[in-house]
Design a protein that fits this description.
The complex is a heterodimer of chains A (329) and B (297). Chain A is an all-alpha fold and 329 residues long. Helix content of chain A is 79%, strand content 0%. With 297 residues, chain B is mostly helical. Chain B is elongated. Chains A and B meet through α2, α7, α8, α12 and α13 of A and α5, α6, α10 and α12 of B.
C-alpha cells in the first residue's frame, strides 16, 4: 500500500494493525480486572453473611466468628480485596475449599478435562449441523425447507436445555438403548461415546442462533455482485456454493461461536447435572450445596477469564484471517 | 427527507414518530393482518385465561396430596394423569403457569426500565458514561449467563426473592445494549440536532424524542428476553434453587418427574411442553409486534 493511502486511512480513523492489537489486548486486560473485582464482590453484594449461610441457622456465635476469621471476613473490605488479588496473582487461585481443604485450582483442573471435551464436541457438532441447515435454507430461499428452518428458532427458543437432555435420555437411552443414560465411561472411546448425548443437547441450544445468522450471512453473499458475476460466467452452482459462499461464511460463524461460547459454558454446566457427568458443573453444584464459597468464586473466575481470553483469540484470529484487514498492515 | 426515507430500509425505531392520521390502517384491522401477532396473542391469551380461571375449571387442589391415586395415566377425571403424590397434573400445570408467568413479568419490570434508562444515557451522552457502561456490560457478559444466575440466585436465597434479585442485577444488560445502540445512532440524526439547536434541555430530548423511538424495539426485545427469563426460572426450579415446593412450578415438576421417566414419562415431558408453548407464543408476539411497528413507519 502506498504511503499516501495509508495516511488517508489513518486520517479517516482506521487504526493501524499494531494499534488495533494493542487496543484489543488492553480492553481484554481491563475486562479481566473488572471480572476479578466482580468475583470478589459476588458474595458480598447479596444480603446476608456468608459465614452464617455456610454454617446454617443453628450455628453458634463463636463458630461464626471463627469461620469469618478463616475466610478473612473480619478484615476491612480493602484488606480483603488486597488479599484476594494477591493469592490470585501469586498462586492463580481463589484459596482453599472449605470442605476438603484442597486448593481450588487443583479441584478445578481435576474436573476441567471432561467439561472441555464436552464443550468442544458440542461446538463441532453445532457448527457442522448449522452449516448444513443454513446452506439448505439459503439455497432454497422462500421454499418450504427454508420456512421450516426459519420456524425452528422460534420453537427451540423456549426449550430448557435440561429438558431437551431429559427427552434425549428418554428416547435414546431408556427406549432405544443406543446411548448410556448417564455417567462417563473409561477411556477415550468410552468418553466420546458417553458424551455424545450431552454434546447433542448442548449443541441443540446453539444451533438456532447459529442457523439464523448463517442463513442471513449466506443470503448476503449469494446475492452479492461477485456471486452474480460467477453465475454469469456459468460456474457450476456447487463450486460457487462450496468454494466461495461457504468460505465467506466461515469467518462470521467463527465470530458468532466466540460470542456464544459464554452461553455454551453455562448450558454445559446445567447439562452435566442432567447426565450425571463429574465435570465443572457438578463441582459447582456440590460446592453450592455445601456452601463452599472459595470454590464457587474460583469457578466463576476461571469461566469468565476463559470467555474473555477465547473471545480475544477469536477476534485476533478472525482479524488475521480476513484479507481486508491485511491491507491495514 | 421523503426520498431519503424511501431509499433506506425502514427499521423500527429509527424514524421519528409520525403525527396521527398518517399511519395507514389503524388499530384492530392492522393487527389482524399480521398472522404472527394474532397467533401469539391468542396463544398467550388462552394460557392467561386458563391461569386466571383454573380454580373454577378444575375441582382439584394443586398441593393437596392423594396417595391413594398416585402416578395414574391420563383419564377423564385426571386429564393429564396424576403425579407421584397423587396430585392432578393438569391442575398443577396451570397453577404453575400462574407462578412462573407472574414471576417472569415481575422480574422483567425493573431491568426493562433501568436498562433503557442506562442505555439512553450512555448512547446519547457518550463519553465517559458510555465507557463505564460498556465496561460493566462487557464484564457481565464474560460470565456465562447460567453461572451468574445460579450463583446469585443461590446466594440471595432460594425462592422468588432470589430470582428477582438475580434479574435486577443481570437483566438490564440486554435492554441497555439495545437502547444504547439506537440512541447513539439517533443522536446523529438531523431532527435531534435541530431539537438541540432549539435549546431543548437534555432530559426533554431523552424522554420526549428518543424514548418513544426506542420503546418499540425494546418491547420486541422484551418478548424474546422474557422467554429467556422463563427458561431461567424453570432451570433454577429444576436445579432446586428456584421456587420451593410445594408451590407448583414447571421446573420442579420436571425434576420430580425425572425419577419416573421409565414408567410415567409425561410427568417430565408435559411441563416442558408448557414452557415451549409459552416460548412460541412470546416469540410470535415479538415477531408480530416488530412487523406491526415496521409497517407503521
Amino acid at each position: 500500500m502506498t504511503q499516501t493511502l495509508r495516511k488517508a486511512r489513518r486520517e479517516a480513523g482506521f487504526p493501524s494493525s499494531l494499534r488495533w492489537l494493542g487496543m484489543a489486548l488492553l480492553r481484554a486486560l481491563i475486562v479481566i480486572l473488572c471480572v476479578t473485582t466482580a468475583v470478589f464482590f459476588l458474595i458480598r453484594i447479596v444480603p446476608g453473611d456468608p459465614a452464617k449461610m455456610i454454617l446454617g441457622e443453628y450455628a453458634t456465635d463463636e463458630s461464626i466468628a471463627a469461620l469469618r476469621h478463616t475466610l478473612g471476613l473480619d478484615l476491612s473490605l480493602w484488606e480483603q480485596f488486597v488479599r484476594f488479588v494477591r493469592t490470585l496473582f501469586t498462586q492463580g487461585d481463589t484459596g482453599h475449599s472449605i470442605v476438603s481443604d484442597v486448593s481450588v485450582r487443583q479441584l478445578i483442573s481435576d474436573r476441567a478435562p471432561v467439561t472441555l471435551l464436552l464443550i468442544a464436541m458440542a461446538a463441532v457438532l453445532a457448527v457442522f449441523v448449522s452449516l448444513i441447515l443454513a446452506v439448505a435454507a439459503a439455497t432454497n430461499k422462500d421454499k418450504l425447507i427454508d420456512h421450516l428452518i426459519r420456524i425452528f428458532p422460534a420453537i427451540t427458543l423456549g426449550m430448557p436445555v435440561f429438558w431437551v437432555g431429559l427427552l434425549l435420555i428418554l428416547l435414546f437411552g431408556v427406549r432405544l438403548h443406543w446411548f448410556p443414560v448417564g455417567g462417563v465411561r473409561e477411556g477415550w472411546a468410552g468418553m466420546l461415546y458417553s458424551l455424545t448425548l450431552p454434546a447433542i443437547t448442548v449443541a441443540f441450544s446453539q444451533i438456532p442462533t447459529l442457523v439464523r445468522s448463517l442463513r442471513a450471512q449466506m443470503l448476503e453473499v449469494l446475492e452479492s455482485d461477485f456471486v452474480v458475476t460467477l453465475r454469469a460466467a456459468a460456474i457450476p452452482r456447487r463450486v460457487i456454493l462450496f468454494k466461495h459462499v461457504l468460505r465467506n461464511s466461515a469467518l462470521p460463524t467463527l465470530m458468532l461461536l466466540g460470542v456464544n461460547l459464554s452461553y455454551m459454558i453455562g448450558g454445559t454446566l446445567v447439562v452435566e447435572q442432567v447426565f450425571g457427568i463429574k465435570g465443572i458443573g457438578s463441582l459447582l453444584f456440590t460446592s453450592i450445596s455445601s456452601r463452599d464459597f472459595p470454590v464457587i468464586q474460583g469457578i466463576a473466575l476461571y469461566c469468565a477469564v476463559a470467555v474473555v481470553v477465547i473471545g480475544l483469540l477469536v477476534e485476533i484470529f478472525a482479524w488475521w484471517l480476513d484479507p481486508r484487514t491485511k491491507e491495514k498492515r | 427527507m421523503k426520498t431519503e426515507r424511501m431509499l433506506t430500509t425502514p427499521e423500527i425505531g429509527t424514524d421519528p414518530v409520525l403525527p396521527p392520521g398518517t399511519r395507514g390502517p389503524r388499530g384492530w384491522s392492522r393487527i389482524r393482518r399480521i398472522p404472527a401477532l394474532m397467533a401469539g396473542g391468542v396463544m398467550l391469551l388462552l394460557l392467561i385465561l386458563l391461569a386466571v380461571f383454573i380454580p373454577w375449571i378444575s375441582p382439584f387442589d394443586p398441593t393437596a396430596q392423594d396417595l391413594s391415586s398416585f402416578l395414574q395415566p391420563p383419564s377423564a377425571e385426571h386429564w393429564l394423569g396424576t403425579d407421584q403424590l397423587g396430585r392432578d397434573l393438569f391442575t398443577r400445570l396451570i397453577y404453575a403457569a400462574r407462578t412462573d408467568l407472574g414471576i417472569m413479568v415481575l422480574a422483567e419490570i425493573i431491568p426493562f426500565c433501568s436498562g433503557i434508562a442506562i442505555g439512553l444515557l450512555a448512547g446519547y451522552y457518550g463519553g465517559w458514561v458510555n465507557t463505564i457502561v460498556s465496561l460493566v456490560t462487557d464484564t457481565f457478559i464474560a460470565f456465562p449467563f447460567y453461572l451468574i444466575v445460579i450463583i446469585v440466585a443461590f446466594a440471595s436465597g432460594a425462592g422468588a426473592k432470589g430470582i428477582y434479585i438475580t434479574f435486577v442485577l443481570v437483566g438490564w444488560i440486554v435492554f441497555a445494549r439495545v437502547s444504547r445502540g439506537l440512541a447513539a445512532s439517533l443522536r446523529e440524526q438531523e431532527w435531534i440536532a435541530s431539537a438541540q439547536t432549539l435549546g431543548l434541555p437534555g432530559w426533554r430530548i431523552l424522554l420526549r424524542h428518543l424514548l418513544p423511538n426506542i420503546l418499540p424495539q425494546a418491547v420486541v426485545v422484551l418478548m424474546t428476553d422474557m422467554v429467556g427469563v422463563l427458561v431461567a426460572i424453570v432451570t433454577l426450579g429444576y436445579l432446586g434453587i428456584g421456587i420451593a415446593p410445594p408451590t407448583p412450578d414447571w421446573g420442579t415438576m420436571i425434576a420430580d418427574g425425572q425419577s419416573f421417566m421409565t414408567t410415567a414419562w409425561w410427568l417430565s415431558a408435559v411441563p416442558g411442553f408448557a414452557v415451549v408453548y409459552t416460548g412460541i407464543a412470546l416469540s410470535l408476539l415479538g415477531d408480530g409486534l416488530a412487523d406491526l411497528w415496521r409497517r407503521k413507519s
